[in-house]
Protein 1
Amino acid sequence: MKYPYLFLVLLLSIVVGCSTSDDGPIEEPDPTMYFPPIGSTWETTTPSSLQWDESQIDALKDFLIQTNSKSFMILVNGRIVMEEYFDGHTAQEPWEWNSAGKTLVSATTGIAQQNGLIDIDNKVSDYLGENWTNMDLEKENLITVRNLLTMTSGIDDTKQLVVKSNLTYVADAGSRWAYGNVFQKLMDVVAESSASDFETYFNANLKSKIGMDGFWNEGAIFTIFHSTTRSMARFGLLSLNNGVWDGEQIIDTSFFTECVTSSQNINPSYGYLWWLNGKTQYMVPSQQNVYQGSLVPNAPSDMVAAMGAKDQRIYVDPTKKMVVIRMGNASDPENPNFAVSGFDNALWEKINAVIN
């Protein structure tokens, strides 16, 4: 060959530029993205540097106060743009995630799969043993781990306390979407497959790796995660980056992509315990009605969200590289909803006035 050195350089550049893993091409890290170190240090940026309308910020804060918020944060590229606390709440105090914590369970399930402990396409009884429900064995064996992730187990959703006597048959797994607490059995699947308790596995494989604080507390109906607002924001930032934290793959990217993609055709606005915006129709907890249109019309069409009772929220906007956190009491105490509420649309109207 006339130019062997040049050929070698070109070959090496092709190999480096197309690095792959077992899951496909490795995405180059975003040089503009910031990941806060473990501790209290966290870089900030200003609304003016983002050309936001600062004259609308007070109206946003007033709305948050009027709707019983305890805390609110906006991150862009990982940096704090807004961080507000209300009603005596502080940055050091934990608050309940309620069903927004389902996304933590989804993530931990994915980690258990990437660690070779489970396969989400296997039936749940492979991990919990037969007769974990109060159903005929034939129907029980239709329920896979994926069905628990997608709310399509077919188990009665009117009984939210997850005890065997309440886990009764309504429909074949995969044929009906219904929002319920049976997702908690995923925690048992992780615990059984890892030979540890769920919280220990979660702490070692997720919480400690991204610098979260917080704890799981057994509530009246299901176990609820509590943390500071910044820890909720850390998980939002991990999600914004498709499971990667400062170059380390915490959640397999292909699994996280499945988490935030329509997981079934019955309710396309639901992934693996994540809510998805911008779809043509959606369903809500405690109903079998199908509503036409987008989940939160005022929010970005590609937004995904962790949603919990009393309006605990993580909103992830991939286009603007933005994470929004809201914690607090129910915006409407007379209607403390399980997840989706009119609060989301009203809040995004205020956010849009600031950021657009």
Note: The CA atoms of residues 80 and 163 lie 42 Å apart.
Protein 2
Amino acid sequence: MNLEDLRVFTEVAKEANITKAAKSLNFVQSNVTAKIKRLEKNYETTLFYRHKHGVNLTATGEILFTYAEKVLRLMNDVEKTLKSSNKPNGTLSIGSMETTAATRLPNILSSYHKQYPQVELSLQTGTTADLIKATLKREIEGAFVAGEVNHPELEKIEVVEEELVLVSKKNILTSIDFDQLNNQTFIVFKSGCFYRDILENWLDSKGIRPTNMMELNTLDGVIGCVKAGLGISLLTKPVADKLDKDGDITRFTLPAEYGTITTRFINHKDIVKTSAFREFVSVIHSSVCLNKVLTSS
């Protein structure tokens, strides 16, 4: 048994298909099959049930999968620790909501890259729910998410308070009374988006049960649909400002309890905090201090 066998095993388990796993790993299928058989011989057990649609883990396979993920993660941490020096280098994987990636993050990433150009930055966008899951699984080293985050395994930094506004193309929405809102199409991100949760909670507080929901995966898609007059959406004020360059957008503020949220940077307490990660956090702190100065002036 070696680490490569475990990596192949975990990939097959995740894909539930040997052919897909082989393609993902850039291996020939026979090589993948041989490694699985070697593991099964080594542990004297069957790790997968084979069927015409692929494979599924057996009970003993489930046990090995749990330990294999831990072993591979620990070995990855060892590699990061040993390769990390006082001067930031290597890779840094960060997650972010699309709205933050479009407005707040460019300045942070630009500042960081100027100081540490040798660090290879990787950015993953997603909903707050998805980013929290990825951070807990340590698939990414940290993420910018919205709202309160209370989890014993996570550390957090308050980055900025965002104002949320309801936006539409002019003449689509002239007020936020019941009659107008009840007949609107709401353009939202997929389930797990914190902004969507805020919107739905606010509508629910007004007794509105939206029947027309257009679900999109990208900020560009949401913006494009709003500009085309296909519906209304809830966005942060900086995004709305960019959207309203031509002055053809109407915006409405929400009540205070719904209209302001906090963007936070989170990370798992037990990740390997390389010099690249520590300096990234330092840049975030500097950005937070600058925002406070600009806000108070």
Note: The chain has a mean pLDDT of 88.
